[in-house]
Design goal:
The chain has 204 residues and is an all-beta fold. The chain is built from no helices and 16 strands.
Length: 204
């Protein structure tokens, strides 16, 4: 997964151990239809560990790259932010709809997918020639003035807008409190970066 200023790219690879066999990369771009094209991601919550990269095209390496726990795209739509985080099951993202924002504006486009299918489990299957990305339906809740989570009596299930676009089925909610739509794999707490703090370098 690659984070860009105006979206996210999922890259699949098929690499064969036989040198004469062509390797394959396939990319799906996640963007927001009608969203703020000038948005730039903001890195928050820097961790103590860092990463070193030694790649074929940069043999001298890129070292001491800082890591961050959260990436925020502010105002992707009016009064709506998008945040990326992770837990022990992988990447998750949120839409934070502040009072005055319209959650119905959120339309997610998957450029490069061969098909989008909403499964019987309400999950979204983003299909590609090299494999599928399966995403849980949106988990909807609000945060009250005391900072407590207020679950919604409904979930933000996917609705297909076109062959490669979806939106969320957002129902009635009090508009004086922020609405959060969370897409992840199980709603668990974020994982700690400490598990990799002792990793100095690695290779194949």
């Amino acid at each position: 997964t690659y984070m860009r200023d105006n979206g996210v790219s999922y890259v699949f690879s098929r690499v064969d151990t036989v040198a004469s066999t062509p390797d394959t990369l396939y990319r799906v771009d996640m963007t927001l239809t009608g969203g703020n094209a000038g948005v730039t991601g903001q890195r928050l919550e820097q961790v103590q560990s860092h990463t070193n990269y030694f790649l074929g095209h940069i043999p001298q390496g890129v070292v001491n790259v800082p890591g961050f726990q959260r990436l925020v795209y502010p105002e992707v739509y009016p009064e709506i932010d998008m945040q990326f985080y992770s837990n022990d099951k992988g990447l998750k993202y949120y839409f934070v709809v502040r009072p005055g924002g319209d959650a119905d504006n959120i339309v997610i486009r998957y450029e490069g997918s061969t098909a989008l299918n909403i499964l019987g489990t309400k999950e979204l299957s983003i299909e590609t020639p090299l494999g599928n990305i399966i995403q849980d339906p949106g988990h909807a809740y609000q945060i009250n003035p005391a900072g407590n989570v207020v679950p919604m009596p409904w979930q933000a299930e996917y609705i297909k807008v076109s062959s490669n676009e979806v939106k969320f089925d957002v129902r009635h909610y009090p508009k004086n409190m922020p609405l959060i739509i969370q897409v992840d794999r199980g709603h668990t707490q974020p994982s700690s970066a400490g598990a990799i703090d002792n990793l100095e370098w690695s290779t194949y």
